[in-house]
Amino acid sequence: MSTIQRIIYNALIGAAVLLFPWWALVGVLILFAVTVRSPYELLVWGLVIDGLYGFAGTRFLNIGFFTWGASFVLLFSLFIKDRLLAYNR
Amino acid sequence: MMKNYHLKSRRRQTIYRRPTAIVILFLLVVGGLTFLFPRLFPQLSHSLGTPFWKAKEVTGQYLQAPLSYFKTKSSLERENDRLESRVQELEARVAITALLLDENNALKKILQRAENRVRTLARVIVRPPQSPFGTFIVDTPVDQGKQVVAGDAVLLGESVERLEDSSIVRLYSGSDNVLDVVLASGVFAEAQGRGSGNFVLEVPKETEVAVGEYIKTTTESDYVLGVVEEIEDNETSTFKRVLFRAPLNLHSIEWVEVIES
């Protein structure tokens, strides 16, 4: 994936964070995690979403729900991609 | 062969260590910063997001009118019919409400419990389903714990986060919220939030409940929490399941009022 494509993807996520329903946003984030090789931006987006919509009740160990979710999705996607032949071409 | 396998396995192990270390380091930094400065990330995010949301609210008003030209004639007719019957129904209710309100105010004066609450108007800039966790974002800083009402008498939720130019309001209908409520018959019960303005509660089978009756919280007798929509009465159960919801469309609320005192 080229840098331009990556930038477009991140712009789409930015728009989804600010304008889309939360379930559409989750869909875009999962699509990003699946299609992009090293989707480390997920961590930052998780932090932004928690900053925008989260409150004390949605944090565990001072870390928001979406930041935890993004961390697990990132690690899981890297783990899966390493084992799938389609990503190792 | 054996040697190759070991090399690959070792390579994989080092590959996983790096992202895991990055994620753990990231979480430690975020957790530490949130512990030291709890409002740092919310304030940063909101200072970026609030101008976008305000712009969206303003442009949305101007965009709605041109988009209505694209509706079909039959759909507009159907909507018109539906709204006309709804208006008639509400006019009948308003007539009774006005009478009851006068009587209520007169009784409060006699009992020296006149309404002396100060309310502040706030514009809703983010509403469900855009916001996860069943929250609203309003464009006014509201102290934590202050209650928010809409449409004069519908209790919606309370402020959970006060920021510089905005606040996060958590709906009472949030999915893990439990509230003490009182039915029109005077029976007390525990209602569980189900998201998007919906609640559910269980009462003994012999309790009188009717569709359309109002449900209030035990702490706020002046405000309505919801209206009974459905009653599930199972023959084998000793309880009735009452489903009720806020009498407003939470997805289209534009203004709310904050009860200041």
Describe what this molecule looks like in 3D.
By secondary structure, chain A is mainly α. Chain A has helices spanning 3-19, 22-35, 41-53, 65-83, and strands spanning 59-60, 63-64. Chain A has a two-stranded antiparallel sheet with strand order 1-2. In chain A, a hairpin with a 2-residue loop joins strand 1 and strand 2 (63-64). In chain A, helix 1 (3-19) runs antiparallel to helix 2, helix 1 runs parallel beside helix 3 and helix 3 packs antiparallel against helix 4. The longest helix of chain A has 19 residues, at 65-83. Chain B is of the alpha+beta class and 261 residues long. Chain B is built from 3 helices and 12 strands. In chain B, strand 1 (119-126) and strand 2 (135-138) form a beta hairpin. Chain B is globular and about 65 Å long. At the A-B interface, helix 1, helix 3 and helix 4 of A face helix 1 and helix 2 of B.
Order of helices and strands of chain A: HHHEEH
Low-confidence stretches of chain A: none
* Class inferred from helices and paired strands of chain B: alpha+beta
Instruction: Please summarize the sheet with the most strands of chain B.
Output: 6 strands, antiparallel, barrel
Count of discrete alpha- or pi-helical segments spanning 4 or more residues of chain B: 3
| Beta-strand residue fraction of chain B | 25-35%
Q: Name the helicity range of chain A.
A: over 70%
Shape of chain B: globular
Largest sheet entry of chain A:
2 strands, antiparallel
Mean pLDDT over the full residue set of chain A: 86
Helices and strands of chain B, in order, run as HHHEEEEEEEEEEEE
| Helix fraction of chain B by DSSP (H/I, runs of at least 4) | 25-40%
